[in-house]
TrEMBL record:
<dbReference type="InterPro" id="IPR000515">
    <property type="entry name" value="MetI-like"/>
</dbReference>
<dbReference type="InterPro" id="IPR035906">
    <property type="entry name" value="MetI-like_sf"/>
</dbReference>
<dbReference type="Pfam" id="PF00528">
    <property type="entry name" value="BPD_transp_1"/>
</dbReference>
<keyword id="KW-0813">Transport</keyword>
<feature type="domain" description="ABC transmembrane type-1">
    <location>
        <begin position="62"/>
        <end position="280"/>
    </location>
</feature>
<keyword id="KW-0812">Transmembrane</keyword>
<feature type="transmembrane region" description="Helical">
    <location>
        <begin position="258"/>
        <end position="280"/>
    </location>
</feature>
<comment type="similarity">
    <text>Belongs to the binding-protein-dependent transport system permease family. CysTW subfamily.</text>
</comment>
<feature type="transmembrane region" description="Helical">
    <location>
        <begin position="99"/>
        <end position="123"/>
    </location>
</feature>
<feature type="transmembrane region" description="Helical">
    <location>
        <begin position="12"/>
        <end position="34"/>
    </location>
</feature>
<protein>
    <recommendedName>
        <fullName>Phosphate transport system permease protein PstA</fullName>
    </recommendedName>
</protein>
<dbReference type="GO" id="GO:0005886">
    <property type="term" value="C:plasma membrane"/>
</dbReference>
<keyword id="KW-0472">Membrane</keyword>
<dbReference type="InterPro" id="IPR005672">
    <property type="entry name" value="Phosphate_PstA"/>
</dbReference>
<dbReference type="GO" id="GO:0005315">
    <property type="term" value="F:phosphate transmembrane transporter activity"/>
</dbReference>
<keyword id="KW-1133">Transmembrane helix</keyword>
<feature type="transmembrane region" description="Helical">
    <location>
        <begin position="66"/>
        <end position="87"/>
    </location>
</feature>
């Protein structure tokens, strides 16, 4: 076959495959949004869920999702930054670092239900945290930490060696070079990876069923003392998240309007994840332009 014809055929096949994938994904997202957006309202977003009567919302579950996400990112971000900096800038090329990187790859491919069962055995039972936001945040840290670490390492490795050599030539120490030269250059990629990781955590359900629990007790939004069991900021209270709520509604079906609530909650979840992904690209591009302009 003529090379030009073969190239056109291969290109056409790739375009067709890409188009089919895009159509499938767009159809799925469109169906979820078409079914769920009409059920979204301010009352739906702020009112508590109802068990045996219609008219409930997702207010507590939505708050739990963002609060748990915040705790998980506060725990995992500094750890992943430290691990990524070590692997990229300080770790020697030997069997130990190879084992560490292989372990990170294995952990990043673990099913979330396995992470949930690990969190149940360690955080819920062994550490006696019970079904709580803290247990869920620690389980999500285990779930998300390998990907964040790999993202930080790859972002730092993407910075040219001439940047490091320039810092050292100016008399900076190795740590000062990493902190003031390499990190700012890698910041767009790091922040993009962090936001994408946050979106991945926000939609997680399996790991939280066994750690954060499947109940959403009423919260007292007038009392923000973390020591109060009814306080929204109490890390030791059970916290059903939005993704777990969707699973629970469809598995139990004890609400008269379960279909409407499930559709609306699914649409909110999809919109939130889309915002995370679009935000990652937006902030990443803006930071990259600022860094290149500087």
């Amino acid at each position: 076959m003529n090379p030009k014809i073969a190239d056109k055929v291969a290109t056409t096949v790739l375009y067709i495959i890409s188009g089919i994938i895009i159509i499938i994904l767009a159809s799925l997202l469109g169906y979820i949004l078409f079914q769920g957006v009409p059920h979204i309202s301010w009352h739906f977003l702020t009112s508590p869920a109802q068990s045996f009567e219609a008219g409930g919302g997702i207010g507590i579950q939505l708050f739990n999702s963002f609060y748990l996400l915040l705790l998980a990112m506060l725990i995992s971000t500094p750890i992943s930054l430290g691990a990524g900096i070590y692997l990229s800038e300080y770790a020697k090329k030997n069997w130990l670092t190879d084992v560490i990187r292989t372990s990170i790859e294995i952990l990043s491919s673990l099913p979330s239900v396995v992470v949930g069962l690990f969190g149940f055995l360690i955080f819920v039972l062994q550490f006696k945290f019970g079904f709580s936001i803290l247990s869920g945040a620690l389980a999500l840290t285990v779930f998300n930490l390998p990907l964040l670490t790999r993202n930080v390492e790859d972002s730092l490795r993407g910075v040219g060696n001439e940047q490091r050599e320039a810092g050292l030539a100016l008399g900076l120490s190795r740590w000062e070079t990493v902190l003031h030269v390499v990190m700012p250059e890698a910041l767009p990629g790091i922040i993009t990876g962090m936001i994408l990781g946050a979106g991945r955590v926000f939609g997680e359900a399996a790991a939280l069923i066994y750690t954060a629990g499947q109940s959403a007790p009423a919260l007292d939004f007038t009392n923000w003392n973390p020591a109060n069991i009814a306080s929204p900021l109490n890390p030791f209270r059970p916290a059903e998240t939005l993704a777990v709520h969707i699973w629970k509604i469809n598995s139990e079906g004890i609400q008269p309007d379960a279909v409407a609530v499930s559709a609306g909650a699914s649409a909110v979840l999809v919109i939130a994840v889309l915002i995370f992904n679009v935000g990652a690209r937006y902030f990443g591009n803006r930071l990259f332009k600022k860094m290149t302009a500087a």
